[in-house]
Amino acid sequence: MSLIKSISGIRGTIGGKPGETLSPLDVVKFTAAYGKWLMAQQPDNRKVVIGRDGRISGALIQRLVISTLNAMGIDVVDLDLSTTPTVEMAVKFEKAAGGIILTASHNPQNWNALKLLNSEGEFISAADGAQLLEFAAAEDFEFAPVEKLGGYTTDNTSLEKHIEAVINYPLVDVAAIQKAGFSIVLDAINSTGAIAVPALLHALGVTKVTVLNGEINGKFAHNPEPLPQHLTQLCNEVVSQKASLGIAVDPDVDRLCFVCEDGTLFGEEYTLVAVADYVLQHRKGAAVSNMSSTRALKDVAVNHGGEYYPSAVGEVNVVTKMKQVNAVIGGEGNGGIIVPDLHYGRDALIGIALFLTHLAHSQKSTRQLRNSYPDYFMSKNKIELENGADVNHVFTKIQDKYKNNPINKEDGLKIEFDNDWVHLRTSNTEPIIRIYAESSFESTADNIAKRLMQDIRESM
């Protein structure tokens, strides 16, 4: 059982004791803390947009959140089943004070979360999050009298507006996509991608679409994180149907990866690389990704005469760095695409539209496009943490062991080994240490990761 409070929101498992899980009491407490923070930020704007993914617990959490906000005198605009990027954009559409997305993103079906947005439709900052957690700890809330309770309205137009913004984005070429005649297999992982992605593909002129796991019941057909070991069904179906490509999204449709026509993975790290390659062909400027992402993005940015900047892991950190350097494209190696002049949030829908445009213009197959990029191999691993584990002690011992190597401590430990690297950091979303290693050789990346995992175990 887990309850994690971080820059990625309030995330936990369903069922168990308050304070140790995302219990109904915790949902109410953290929603009330958000409401208090929101009213301190914008006392004259008491409108909040909410939406949820297809999780089993989604409707229950939704009712708790709506009732709590209403009890504080806050008006709720409910998108119901939606996507994270759609809610982010709807905050701006509605001129709302903020938004809450009810999703645990890539976590298994027994998890849920409150992702908290500011009036820009962006994740709240670390400083704002710290203040919100102080409000939650104090439990000093004031609820509205009966004559000032908040209102409730539903909205079923935001996805349509989101898709309209995507197809009208200047670098999206609907005519080229339609002419290419793509056939696509989608793995919607029993969540809201089953609504959003087919609607987008139809708007882009793609008529040959097969949806796998399209029933929105939250009973995920496989682990919902779009990693190779979870996508065998999609890979097999792409080959069986002789499709042009496959698309996989996570349950809240902010992460994205592709499958080539031969059933091989395009590589989630290369989702951003390919989209950035296309954007940077047309817009000169900087690219940003977090420091756990592939160096191939830097290669592409430099190739187009641009600059590359790394950030700490976490969407809010990527967005902050993008604003600092005025980046034209950014995101994360987990398949998250951020197109700043659309909105500052990971968005699989704009990612799909830009990727298909790039693929259509290139007149290459999906596999040929992937082969046009440098090959780096990343080994992604994790070690589960016991309650009370002293991660600082572990990292200090490892830092001392590798003190002669270049080390970046901005976000955990990133250690350089000539042209290879390894990044160790605690997760924002799970009680684990993530160990990512990258090299030009797959075996080298695996060996670096194994060595550091052994170092971690010996240091605990």
Automatic annotation (TrEMBL):
One of its GO terms (cellular component) is cytosol. Keywords: Isomerase, Magnesium, Metal-binding, Phosphoprotein. Residues 8-141, 163-263, 270-374 form the Alpha-D-phosphohexomutase alpha/beta/alpha domain. Residues 395-453 form the Alpha-D-phosphohexomutase C-terminal domain. The keyword Metal-binding applies. Belongs to the phosphohexose mutase family. This is Phosphoglucosamine mutase. It comes from Filimonas zeae.
